[in-house]
Amino acid sequence: MNRTACTSCSLLVLALAAGGAAASVPSVDECLEASDFIANAARARDNGIARDRFLERLDADFSTIQAFPQPLRWFAHDREDEHFLRRAAVAVFDAPAPPDEHRAAFLRACFERMSA
Prior knowledge:
Blueprint: H1 3-19, H2 28-46, H3 51-65, H4 79-94, H5 99-115
Helix pairs in contact: 2-4, 2-5, 3-4
């Protein structure tokens, strides 16, 4: 096998390994803090913030967070964490419920994620 082919194979193996890496597991504190965030998102909704504005800001925050090393990030350590938190924020706007109900639903899902 020539050197170029070997290098290509190595890069492919690394890409596949990175793609198959397990998502981070949130801590209890992160689940609690993120559930507070989701409850506050519901309060913001109740106070008139628009769905698109809230989600645009959340996406911008995710972009900013990516500049920090993973150990220094709050909750959104990887893309799967971002999607998990974003889905909960979308639910706040698409399936309105009281803030405490959104918080409880998020906590259940987050604790399930911890034990998976």
